[in-house]
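Sequence only, no structure available. Ideas?
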Amino acid sequence: MRKPKPAEMAKIEQSRKMLQMGQAAERDRFTKFMPTDMKAARDMQRGANEMRESVDPAARDYELAVDSGQKNGGSVKAKKMAKGGSASSRADGCAVKGKTRGKFV
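Reply:
I predicted one. Tokens follow.
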């Protein structure tokens, strides 16, 4: 991963705008009735993807990592129950004996 150069960043931004415009045009309710407009919207999305793929993969990966807001590396810790124990000792009543039997009124 490396930081994109200004020219690469401009291509990425342009492709992002084109993709958003294509998606918005595809969601437009009038576009659904016009096959040529729907094709134009899909062509715009395809062009945006091709423009994005023309940028070096290392620069694209960096841009995606920064946009996602995720950190690199580190370990994932398993979540533990608040007070420990097994599922049958939870106080939410999901594993209490005899609660599934129906009662007649």
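The two ends are 67 Å apart (CA to CA).
Hope that gets you unstuck.
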